[in-house]
Task: inverse folding
């Protein structure tokens, strides 16, 4: 661990359950062995505050997507512990982990992952339909109105723009009222206007609906929609920023000399 990384991570106490929707305790993730051994995460301790929008940034290979996948229970950790609320994911068996992901976690990915034969509304309620649960009609109405797609609910994905399809995916993640939503490059397949619409929706879902969101991104402009930004390099959190702007995020990234970041 570098001195700069130690100064920002070791100085803070390990996060407790408290106001955190998700947290990790010194998690590591190692792939391969011998000469092929890769340390994707290196003792990361972090807490994700409830009702906040957190962005995670770093260069390719920094561990940002691995951190999200481990904290969301999509991948196992090599060492350490991960919690969603008070539940320790590292102690759950496969069936219980699947149930937790279904009931307490929402996911938004770069690919929209919509079922082409279903309408927008059917795609939104699909996870609850599979689980045999009826959606709360008042909450579903609120989500639909926040997304702004009520006139398009009967349309199939092929009849929607890319931005509309991603907003359907966002609504699907919100519809079951999860404790936390993990978004992996949610605007990566969108043009700038559609991307801004999705980011505005994510931010409003936090501010107006009390949702908790963690978003992995490489784009300083996208990170500026968040309440805070976590910066990763070499599998470690090396800094955080509250109330980010695109300019401040880009300047901080330049300070880390991270590759692959443009000034656009």
Result:
């Amino acid at each position: 661990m570098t001195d700069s990384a130690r100064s920002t991570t070791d100085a803070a106490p390990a996060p407790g359950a408290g106001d955190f929707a998700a947290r990790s305790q010194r998690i590591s993730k190692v792939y391969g062995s011998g000469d092929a051994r890769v340390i994707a995460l290196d003792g990361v301790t972090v807490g994700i505050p409830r009702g906040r929008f957190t962005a995670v940034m770093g260069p390719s290979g920094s561990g940002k997507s691995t951190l999200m996948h481990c904290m969301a229970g999509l991948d196992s950790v090599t060492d350490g512990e991960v919690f969603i609320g008070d539940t320790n994911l590292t102690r759950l068996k496969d069936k219980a982990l699947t149930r937790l992901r279904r009931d307490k976690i929402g996911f938004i990915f770069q690919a929209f992952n919509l079922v082409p034969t279903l309408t927008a509304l059917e795609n939104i309620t699909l996870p609850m339909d599979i689980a045999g649960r009826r959606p709360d009609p008042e909450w579903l109405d609120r989500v639909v109105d926040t997304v702004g797609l009520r006139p398009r609910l009967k349309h199939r994905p092929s009849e929607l723009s890319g931005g509309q399809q991603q907003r359907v995916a966002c609504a699907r993640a919100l519809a079951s009222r999860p404790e936390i939503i993990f978004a992996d490059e949610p605007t990566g397949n969108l043009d700038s206007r559609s991307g801004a619409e999705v980011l505005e929706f994510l931010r409003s879902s936090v501010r107006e609906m009390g949702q908790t969101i963690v978003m992995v991104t490489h784009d300083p402009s996208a990170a500026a929609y968040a309440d805070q930004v976590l910066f990763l390099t070499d599998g470690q959190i090396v800094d955080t920023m509250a109330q980010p702007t695109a300019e401040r995020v880009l300047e901080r990234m330049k300070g880390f000399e991270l590759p692959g970041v443009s000034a656009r």
In short: The mean pLDDT is 87. Strands lie at 20-31, 38-49, 53-57, 79-84, 87-88, 105-109, 180-184, 213-216, 228-233, 236-242. The CA atoms of residues 20 and 49 lie 4 Å apart. The chain has one domain: 3-110+179-255.
